[in-house]
Every structure is written in C-alpha cells, then in structure tokens.
Specification:
CATH class of one domain in chain B: Mainly Alpha
Oligomer: heterodimer
Strand content of chain B: under 5%
Helix content of chain B: 55-70%
Number of domains of chain A: 2
Number of helices of chain B: 16
CATH topology of one domain in chain B: ABC transporter involved in vitamin B12 uptake, BtuC
Low-confidence stretches of chain B: 1-25
Number of helices of chain A: 15
Structural class of chain B: mainly alpha
Order of helices and strands of chain B: HHHHHHHHHHHHHHHH
Largest interface: A-B, 43 and 46 residues
Radius of gyration of chain B: 22 Å
Largest sheet of chain B: none
Amino acid sequence: MRDRLNRLLLNVVAALVAAAFAGALTSFILLIRGDSPSFVLSQMWHYGTQRSTELSIVDGATVYYLSAVAVAIGFRMNLFNIGVDGQYRLAACLAGAFAGSVALPTGVRQAATILVAMLAGAAWAGIVALLKLLRGVSEVISTIMLNFIATSLIAYLMRASVFGHQHGTDTTTQPIPTSGQVGGLDLIPNSGGKVYGLIILAVAVGIAFHVIVNYTRFGFDLRAAGRSASVAQTSGVNVKKMTALTLLMSGAVAGLVGMPILLGSSHSFSAATFQSGLGFTGIAIALLGRNNPVGIAFAALLWSFLDNSATILDLNNIPKEIIQITQGIVVLSVVVAYELVRRIALVRQQRIVGRALTRTTPVAEGAPA
Amino acid sequence: MTIVGDNAATTVGGLGPAGAASRGRRFDLRAAVFFAVVGLALLSLTRVITGANDITSGGTVGATITLAVPIALAGLGGLWSERSGVVNIGLEGMMILGTFFGADFAYFSHSPWMGVLGGVVGGMIGGLLHAVATVTFGVDQIVSGVAIIILSTGAARYLAGVFFTGQQGGGPTQSPHVPSFAQLKVPGADKFFGKIEGHHWFVVSDVAGLLRGITTSLTPFTILMLLLFPATWFVLWRTAFGLRLRSCGENPDEAESLGVSVYTMKYIAVTVSGALAGLAGAFLVDFAGIYREGQTGGRGFIGLAAMIFGNWRPGGLAAGAALFGYTDGLQLRQGSTSVHALLLLVAMLLVLLAAYLTWRRRVIPAAAALLGAALVFVWYSVTNDIPVEFVPATPYIITLLVLAFAAQRLRMPAADGLPWRKGQGS
C-alpha cells in the first residue's frame, strides 16, 4: 500500500515537473517575441474561468475523453490504435446518415444511432485486427493507412448520390430532426448554454473501462497480455482472441467520439466539422493521463482548457498557436518524465528485493545444518 | 509483386552473425531493365486500347517526378532511421518543420538554395528531438513520433504567425511568395517530343512522353534529391560506417560488443532522417512557391508506406515512391478515366503473373491470380470511370495489400522499434 502511494506520488511529481518544464519553455518562446508570460497566463486564466468558456471546455473535454479512452484500451494491451481518427470519422459519417434518414421512435433512434457508430468504429478497427492476426501486419502501419483510406471513403460517401445533402456551401448528411437529437444538460449555471447531454455517455464509458480493466477476468487477461504476450499465452490466455477483442472494443469506443457533436450540436455529419486530428489528440491525452480513466479526465480537461482559453490571446495580438507548442512539449516531457520515474522505481524495487534476499540468506544457509 | 529475379538472391546485407537472417537482394540491372521495358509496353498497350492518352503523357510523367520526390525523400528519411533501429512516424512532423523553415529561409534570403538549407535545418531539429527522446531517454518510439507531429504542427503555425504576418500575402496559414528554382528545360525538347507524342504511336509516343516529362520538369533541386538515392545506398551498404549503422538496427547488443557506439550511430541516423524529411518539406515549398498550412498532406506517412513497400531498401523505396507519385500525378490528369484505364493494366499484369506461376507449377496461386484478373477485367468492362475520391487512397490500399500478401518477402531490421539501453545487453 505504501509502495503504491509512493509510486503515485512519484508520478504526480513527474507530471508536475514536466508541466513546469513545458511552462518554462513556453515562457522562453514568448519572451523571445517580447510577450510577457505572466500576462499570457493571467489572460488565459481569466478568460478560461468565465462561465461561457467553461462550457466549451467541458464540451471539448467530453470529446477528447472518449478519444483518449479508445486509445487507452489499446495501450493497456500494448496495441497502438493510431486509427481512432479514421474510425471516429467513418462512424460519425455512417451514424449521421443513419440518424438523418431512419425514422424511429425518440429514444430508440438515439440509441440505434450510437449503436451504429459503435459498430462502424469496431468494423473499421476489425480490419486492423484481421490484418494483424491473419497476416501479422503491425497495427501501427495498418491504422495509419486506414485513416487515409477512411478519408477517401468518406469523400465518396458524401457524394450527392450516396449520403450527401447540399446545405448552403457545405455538403452534409441529412440533418437529424429534433426528435433524434440529444439535448444538453444545464451543468454550468449562468453560462448561457448547456453542456453535451452525452457527457453522461463519456462518464459511463470511463466507469465501464475502469471496471472492466481492473475488476474482471477479461481485464486481467488484457493487462497480462499487455505485459507479456508469451507469459499470458502460457498461463492460458488466448492472446489472439484478446487482441481481436481489444481492437474491436477500442474501435467501438472510437466510434462514440463523434456522437456528442453529432447528436448534440452539429446534427449532421460533414467533413468540415468532423476533422482529422482528434485521434492524435486522443493519443496525447491518453499518454498524459497514463491510460487511467481518472487521469485521462484531468488530462482532457487540461487540454481543452488550453485550447479554449488560448482563443483570447489572438485579441491581444499574441498568436494563440503558442498553446499548441505548449501541448506538444507537455506530451514529450511527460513521457520522458514517466520513463525516468519507471527507471527510478525499478532501481528502488531491485534494491528492496536485494535487501530482503540478503537478510534471508543466512537463515537459508543455516537450515540444513 | 516484388521486382526480383531468381538469380538475384545474393547476400548484400550480410552482417556477420546476423547475416543469415538479413540476406538482402542485389539490385539486378538486367531484371530492372527487363521489367521497365515490359512495363512500358504494357502501359502503351493499355493506352492504345483504352485511348486514355494521359497515362503516359509528358505532363503525367512530369507530375509523377514532382510528386514522387517528396514521398521518396520522406521514405529515405524513414529508411535511415529504421535501419538504425528507430521507428520514425514523426517524419510527417519533421516534414512540416521543413516546409516552414524552407519557406522562411528562402523568403528572407531571396534564394532558393537557402530554402534547401532551411529544410535541412528544420528537419534536423525534429530529428534531434526524436533522437533525444528515443535514444537517450528510451521513450517509446511511436509515442515520441506522435508527440513530435503535434509539436511541429503547433510550432510551424506559431512561427508562421510570427514571421509571415505583415509580409505581403503572408499570415499564420501561409507565407508570401517565396523564390524557387527555375526548371531546367532542354531547348526544343518540349516541342520535339510533344509532336511525336501527339501521334499516339505504340511505344514510340510513350517513350517520347517519358522523355518530354523528364526534359521539362527537372530543377536543380530535383536532380540533387534524386542523387541522394545512390548516395544513401552507397553510404549505408558500401561503407564501414553504413555497416555499423545498420548493425545497430539488426542487433545493437552485438554491435556494442564489437565496439560500435550505438547511441552515436542512432543519433546520426535519426538526425539525417529528420534532415531528409525536412528536405521533402522544402521541396514542396519550392515547387508551390509558397508555404501553406497542411501542405505536407500526409506525405510523411506515404513515405513511410513507400519504404515498407520497398522492403527497407533504397531501390524498392524508389520504385514505391514512383508508383505512389504516379497515382498521385494521374489524379491531376483526367483522374478517373486514367485510373480506370489502369484497371486493364492490372488485369493484364495478373494474367502475366498467372502464366509465370503456372510455369513454376504453382497451380493454386495461378488460379487465384487468374480469378483476380477476371474480376478486375469485369470491373473494367462494366464501369466507365473510377470514383475519383478513391484515387488518393491508392498508395495506402497498395501498401496494405503488399503487407497482407507479401509479408513473407518483407523483412524489416531485426531490432527495429525496440528501445535499447547501453550496457543492458544479455
């Protein structure tokens, strides 16, 4: 217990050091151009804590959270799902077309839409699983390729003869009527708006992720296979089956990423609204949150805070893109810090084990006599 | 289909102890010429039958060269890095840095040559960062690559905002017009070859198209970049340095025990990798005459795909880049008609493959190839064009197919992607 607490503390310190490093480097870059870091920080804090900004921070974090959980599911088994980007966009496209055109009773319609999205995401990730299990193709490469293929497929699907629907200058899927949408929740009073109702879905996904990974046999097998595939196989885990299931689950959650936006604000799919890049952000956030459902929630909120509060900087004539540099540095320094912590913990553990062994040695020697 | 003659399986990449597993294949000139001639004849036949004249026109050839070079350079960057055992999916990010620095240097110095230098500098920064994270700190290579992509995207945006805002036509998303290299046109070649091309003769016109494309689209930059291929091959496969570098990608423990400084080798390889990716970015800027946000458009990833397609070898990589550049170039030239015509070519190639397999008494694969040919031919006959949206996906689909069906023939460096720490070999 004490060991666990120590390790947690070490990780938190590592994250803080990395954040401080990123902050220092960002300040340095700001100073080069003659901008004051403290001014930037105070502006961002002031703007970021306004009610209306908080609203968009929570909305943004909801989407990021789902994306990061999708990535984290794979990470837990040492699988890199870089394809969340393609999976989420294809899923949103198909779910959007479904929700816009299939008339079902309210409630059933939303549930069916979400189900379609999960199935579409899982199916696209299923190709990755097939390639990996049948032909030994690395999921890193196949997911990258499938992201681009998804872009082409979506462009085709958005043709007027398939799902496309001219909406001003934008091509979208058939708009979803009010009865098929998911309303907002009034979580932040006086913000002049409501947060995505599907934030509940994100929370549920987080809880389910936590419970499945930590308290079920499936989760145990998953983590075991992630640590060492050969050991897991020897102890009776069907690693191939686990690989397939993990990828399918990751894809299904990736399918959910676009749902808060689709059902909560855009009400139709268009390539302009559902841009690529969210999958990469998900990877970054999963890394920041150490693949832990609670950690990811904090990381998603931080990322979204940086995104949203930075918009004020442009008004002060400071390029808001500085924040993307900060985000990049945070990710890079955090992974370096975690790696260092892992090494420190390893050395300490070896020392403890070594000490314990030397203490017992004389007893063992004396026993036969 | 890998372009490999049966007599070509000579060891080149032999690395002492690891040699047995790392047998490379010698680039066979006769085989290459043979395949080039057959390929050209088939392309010509396809053109004559379908009337899709753009599949071998000078314009297409020119576009292919221009589009293939950045892909090839990015792939070459991947090759250097992965040969030393470091997977580099941050190529895209290094390429983005190359576009910004290339444009920045070229614009403020009024010289395209400085743009080339800028590309190298920008890419090297990204490469060094990747080396620090993966070699010194042992961070997962994919993770570091993703982080570098995020960081470079932001950095390029910020820097463009700082440097290009206020310049004529410039801003955070694009640069002002930057000086670029003039094309080296052979006098009279355009007209001369164009005339022959216009007759649409079998093979002759296609050769003329090829020559017209080459004689009208090269710039000093292009030629310099093309020379990097033999240079890379020579350095990595014909020098002691190259052998040491590759040994780090095959078996770093043994390399270390033989006195190779694995960290230094990996640092050099990853930095060169970044520089090459940066050059790819600078090339894009030079061609467009302007920096634009999102200019790289995933070409770093296509480069990676070309490298895998080419089995981690420079010759194969060049072939992959040429193929991907060609499909890219065709889109600009009557895309859907041209690509539709290529279906016929694919069908013919599959028939030839079936004949070859039958000759080798491999009846079942031969039957499969023949079936494939029939299916593609039916597809060709019942449609008039291919959905143009799918054309950009061609490189990715080809790569997946190659990975799925030729995986046994592919061999990446044995220790590729594995983190390695000094003094921990077992």
